[in-house]
Amino acid sequence: YYAIERKQAxxxxxxxxxxxxxxxxxxxxxxxxxxxxxxxxxxxxxxxxTFGIVTTNVMGIPFSDxxxxxxxxxxxxxxxxxRQKNLPVRINDVRFLRSNMSEGYLGLTLIPVKSxxxxxxxxxxxLTERKKLxxxxxxxxxxxxxxxxxxxxxxxxxxxxxxxxxxxxxxxNQRKFLTIALQAIDRLSRIINDLLDISKIEAxxxxxxxxxxxxxxxxxxxVNPSSPYQMRAADKGLTLKVRLCQPRIEAYVARDKIxxxxxxxxxx
Length: 268
Fold this sequence. Notes:
Radius of gyration: 31 Å
Strand order of the largest sheet: 2-1-6-5-4-3
Structural class: alpha+beta
Strand content: 15-25%
Helix content: 40-55%
């Protein structure tokens, strides 16, 4: 009876192992399995193709010794965090070198498993092409934005001079349309700045000059009687009014950016 029961248990284990192996082999992402001591227990064909290291050369060796050209300390920190929290951990934009020494980028997800010899799984996706496209996009936005700024500056200066009467007298109707044109030019300049800011934010390179700012002063400057927004509101039969809870409202912000927030809100 005990021999039969033992045989059934062994068969169940073999079946479970076969099912696990089949499941892992069907995954089309980079997949690496580690034991509790970071010994490599699984290394799929995508990992072979990505790193140029065959499975037989890494099975059973410490993960730190598998000779991948990358910042292992970054991965090791993620492994520790994953086990401590017992939750998946994401590591983005992991730079590595392929076997031909070309540069690549990976997005890794570390997942605690704790199933027999398998303690943790590392899923990975090759982000190299996406990074290249992002770089091209950033270059395009930067180039186009800078190329547009010069003619816009010239156009604005010309319209301003005509509007101010430097080049001759203008009628009230002409001044009205020139003012609208000037507002449109300023709006286009803000759109260009927004594009550059978005690009910088995505690249984590946006630098903000923070300072203590009185928001009441900012708001009053934006909606004073001679502001372009009052003129735009008047054209639509509206009036902009300011109602503040106190005479001074200070906040630690980037002045230019908070003005941009207000102008977007008012413009809408």
